[in-house]
Amino acid sequence: MPIINLSELVNRITNPVPWEDVKYNFPWNDPDFSKRMLKEHLDESHDLASRSPGVMNRQLDWIETTWFEPREVKTVLDLTCGPGLIANELARRGYTVRGFDVAPAAIDYARKTATREALPAIFNERDIRAIGYDAGYDAAIFNYGMPNSFNKEEFSLILNRTRDALDPGGFVILEFNSLNSIKNKTGREWRTVSENGLFGERPYLWLQENFYHEENKTAAVIHYIIDLENAGVRTYSICYQGYTRDDLEPILNSCGLKIVAEFDSLTGETGLDDPVNMVVIAERIESEGE
Ligand SMILES: C[S@@+](CC[C@H](N)C(=O)[O-])C[C@H]1O[C@@H](n2cnc3c(N)ncnc32)[C@H](O)[C@@H]1O
Hints:
This protein starts with a strand and ends in a 6-residue tail after the last strand. By secondary structure, it is an alpha/beta fold. The mean pLDDT is 95. It folds into two domains: 3-25 and 181-241, no CATH class; 33-178 and 242-284, Vaccinia Virus protein VP39 (Rossmann fold). The chain has helices at 31-42, 53-68, 85-92, 104-116, 152-165, 179-183, 245-254; strands at residues 3-5, 75-79, 96-101, 121-125, 137-142, 166-177, 187-193, 204-213, 218-227, 232-241, 257-263, 277-284. Helix 1 packs across helix 4. Residues 28, 49-50, 80-82, 85-86, 100-103, 106, 127-129, 143-144, 146 line the site of S-adenosylmethionine.
């Protein structure tokens, strides 16, 4: 993560191409950042890192009754599982679950919960771009817009490995940010944080700038964090790839998956005016001889 002087802010990038000009992702695997992020995951007053328990349980009820029970799902893979709130809840409901996440504090929390409650859930601290996911899963979940946060090559890699990890008849539930919500990532906002914020323990001034790149359907969100003690500026950024269903179809097909259903939310809504999410259920394509 680059640290610049306050005076250099004036020369900051103002029309970036996401992933080309904006390369630094959130430091998900940094121990301190992941501890601070864990606090956000566990804060039930907002849905900013994980869904609050009420929302999450409504989503899991829908997933269970519409997809898991009719298809007799027993084993579930959770990609970017965070502190395992979903995975451990599925394990409480009787599923055998494996979760992968790169954040050490989140995985530690997930494991401790599973151990304390003797749940059938295993958690691995891994970058999902760097590993295979084993095999034998009936279903996979990749939620909370995280499919948008990888570039197209990385996303294809993850989908190929997901497909390989699924048993015949297996399927993946993908929860994207809708293209419109990616397009709406424009504008600028200043905030002050007195202490113990996501981006630092000490008080800071926070400039967030959002950019949408029409040609590539990509967005970048750049956070400039100005330390109020020494005026050093740290930069955190995250890029998003937007997709329509038509964009997704060939990508999924080339990774051995076919779309079987599409919704506006993880509770199965359809026909919303301006949905924030796009949920796609994609099933493993059986190749001849399998
Ligand atoms: C918004 S949170 C969602 C957590 C969880 N899916 C949920 O709904 O509660 C995103 C998670 O993705 C994880 N993550 C980001 N990039 C990753 C990567 N390359 N490999 C594994 N995990 C990653 C982060 O550490 C973080 O825990």
